[in-house]
Amino acid sequence: MDQTAQEQSAFVGIDVAKKHLDVHVLPAATSFRVGRDGAGLDDLRDRLQGLSPVLIVLEATGGYETVVLATLAGAGLPVLAVNPRQIRDFARACGQLAKTDQLDAAVIARFAERIRPELRPLPDAATQMLGEIAARRRQIIDMISAESMRLKQAAARKVQRRINAHLAWLQQELTDIDTDLDNAIQESAVWSHHEALLDAVPGVGKTVARTLLAELPELGTLDRRQISALAGLAPFNHDSGTHRGKRSIRGGRTVVRSALFMATWVATRCNPVIKPFYERLIASGKPRMVALVASMRKLLTILNAIIRDQKPWQAA
């Protein structure tokens, strides 16, 4: 294969660290390292633009990948961040047990070449900001819960006073973050409209609506099967030969699934569509959790259709 043909079929794997990026290119099997700073990202962008790659894949590594994604996507390059668990499972399947940054980049490149995960549009800067604010809100709530448990266990009054002081600060921080969320939603006519559409569905409050806006920007742009898969609500078969195992859900976006769980739990009591659907499943002998997951999937399908069609909730 000549150099031109190789460039036209290049697959790139990038291992992201705090200070540097290890890059591996297939089928040329070339590797290089750049810094995760302005100069390094510019160098990476220029090198990859020269390759015209089919696909660039990197792991989602706690936020370090964000600036890399933004740089490459802004240059019009086909880049995608994948769940690290997918890469680990792929590496084990290939018998790759050793682990270094360079080896990881090579495994990611091989994953890109053989699996070819589907490219999805990246959220814009405003959506990323909303997602970060929503994530910070969840962190504050987790800290409030943890400190509340410590307060119950503390016996010394001095310790109790310190925990109470921290709880008061966290509650004020939560109030401030909610204000930031309100402002972010109000500044966008689209988000305000979408929030109103979602909030009108019985069982779906503002918190769930904002979680979906921030964590599931694809809502309304995919079909029901695709959106269920993104949320981790698509059932997978467990069959072998004549054995037919129970189908189960896995993967997907945990935050979205948790929000839908709470919304559906409420909807099974007050939503005129979800409530009878859930009750029919229970009456037919389905376990409660199976019925609840099926109801989550149905609620998500309804929400997806509402945003897609831009039509308000109708019980019929």
Automatic annotation (TrEMBL):
Residue span(s) of domain Transposase IS110-like N-terminal: 12-154
The Transposase IS116/IS110/IS902 C-terminal domain, residue ranges: 196-279
GO BP of this protein: DNA transposition
Top-level taxon: Bacteria
Pfam families, sorted: DEDD_Tnp_IS110, Transposase_20
UniProt cross-references to InterPro entries, sorted A to Z: Transp_IS110-like_N, Transpos_IS110, Transposase_20
A GO molecular-function annotation: transposase activity
Identification of the protein by name: IS110 family transposase
Lineage: Bacteria, Pseudomonadati, Pseudomonadota, Alphaproteobacteria, Acetobacterales
